[in-house]
Amino acid sequence: MADSNEMTINLAVFGRPQSGKSTVGNSLLGSSDFESRCSPSSVTTQCSLGRSCCLAGVVRRNGCELALRVRVLDTPSYPHSALSKEQVRDMVRSALAHHFGKEGLHLALLVLRADLPLCPDESHHTIQFIQELLGPTWKDFTAVLLTHADKAEEAGFTEETYLHSASSTLLSLLSSVEHKYIFLDNQKSMIKEERAIVLRKLFHFIQQNNYQVL
């Protein structure tokens, strides 16, 4: 990979119902591969893989521009309105092995809503679920994406004041993943420039992890 001018990054999105996880996947891919809509029940019922086209001018490695390809695995939410924890866990495990078994997973993206408080019980169950899927090194391979950041901004919060006012549960989670987090605006679809910024941040997290895969 070091001699190649092209790189594929493998990502998987996790989150609670209506957290915006499928929307995040679509934004990263620049597509509408994953169904995403407002619903009183869980929308995603099976894992699916989306692939981007080759992206130029987004990231560099060792001083050279890389052609970047992005692969995103969308997963059913947990908890789920129609599937048990075991069903979701087994489905995701199988999909991770099938799609990323050879190349490995670069980052698991835990999608949380910035406009809703993260409670201890919710955090505990979410972390326990991801740990069951990814194993004891899950912290090294997990980043937090905070969606609906526009609503927090409308309420008068900057990123700094938001984190200053955040619950100890959220701050503890961000600390455990070594502050790998990104705020995302859900008010408008991600334009090309914004998408490039988010991908650069994710690529930076991967670089910080020495390009290791899970």
UniProtKB/TrEMBL annotation:
GO terms, molecular function: GTP binding
Keywords: GTP-binding, Nucleotide-binding
Gene3D superfamilies: P-loop containing nucleotide triphosphate hydrolases
InterPro entries (alphabetical): G_AIG1, GIMA/IAN/Toc, P-loop_NTPase
Superkingdom in the source lineage: Eukaryota
Residue ranges annotated for the AIG1-type G domain, each copy included: 6-214
Entry's family note: Belongs to the TRAFAC class TrmE-Era-EngA-EngB-Septin-like GTPase superfamily. AIG1/Toc34/Toc159-like paraseptin GTPase family. IAN subfamily.
Descriptive protein name: GTPase IMAP family member GIMD1
Gene name linked to the record: Gimd1
